[in-house]
Amino acid sequence: MSKDEMSHDHITGDFQISQKPYWKLLLQSLFLICILFVAESMVIFLVEKPKYFWIAIVGVIIAFLILKLSKLKLFQFSRITKKQWLIIIIGFILANGADYIYFEFMPTTGNEKELEESYRNVPLYLQLIAIGILGPIIEEIIFRGLLIKGIFRGAPIVGGIVSVILFAGAHGPSNIGEWFIYGFSGFIFVIAYLTTKRLEIPIIIHMLGNILATFQNYFW
Q1: pLDDT at residue 4, as a whole number
Q2: For the CAAX prenyl protease 2/Lysostaphin resistance protein A-like domain, which residue ranges apply (predicted)?
Q3: Exposure on the CB side of residue 134, measured as CA atoms within 13 A
């Protein structure tokens, strides 16, 4: 492979999560996205009812077991390199720096207001589990792993663009500014995924941002 080809592969993220025939991977990805969407919906809904939150946890475990049975290579489970940690730090600073600048001049987004209101009486540890840990894992599997490398296998740039748009739309933006702020975070996650070829990297960036936001909303 030439240097130009290697460079192109690095930029476009030319790696696969499965060698299955495309139609099988497509159907499997769509099915898993539906399962994970239901699991995240349970987490978001039931975290407001701590007594029943265990049902959401069971739902997430079942979803992850189905994901494991699919035999898709979504994670590497290997040591994170110094370069990858640098990407995590830069991605975190860029995404959250943009959030900070936006909210200095603009009101809180409708999505943020709804979360703050819904979670007002929810214990901090449950908020951290739901928003800081489970949310980022599920969303990155859906919007980065399954969407880009499953549904759009072989066309990661197109998949990345669709991923950014759908990710922003999923957060309920009500104006151009909100579309931009959520889309920018999605763009950071896409770049982190395609350049490192590791889903763990955008998950960590996403987690750090959500954990920071959770602490800010809880204490301030």
Answers
A1: 46
A2: 124-211
A3: 27
Q: Beta-carbon neighbour count of residue 97 at 10 Å?
A: 10
Q: Which amino acid is at 147?
A: L
Question: Quick one: the chain helix, strand, coil %, rounded to 5?
Answer: 80, 0, 20
Whole-angstrom distance, CA of residue 129 vs CA of residue 119: 12
- DSSP 8-state assignment for residue 71: T
**Binning pLDDT at 50, 70 and 90, where does residue 108 land?**
low
| SS3 state of residue 198 | coil
DSSP state at residue 28: H
Q: At which residue do the structure tokens 């959030």 appear?
A: 99
| Half-sphere CA count of 163, side-chain side, radius 13 A | 33
Tell if the pTM clears 0.85, that is, is over it.
yes
**In which domain, by residue range, is 173 found?**
3-219
Structural domains in the chain (count):
1
Q: Are 115 and 157 in contact (CB under 8 A)?
A: no
Q: How many helices (H) and strands (E) does the chain have?
A: 10, 0
> Scanning the structure block, which residue is given the tokens 């407001």?
48
* Distance (Å, whole) CA 200 – CA 36: 17
For residue 77, what pLDDT band results from cuts at 50, 70 and 90? confident
Write out pLDDT tens, residues 150-177.
999 999 999 999 999 999 999 988 889 8
**Angle, in degrees to the nearest 10, between helices 156-170 and 176-196:** 140
pLDDT band at 3 (very low <50, low <70, confident <90, very high): very low
Distance between CA atoms of residues 23 and 140, nearest Å: 22
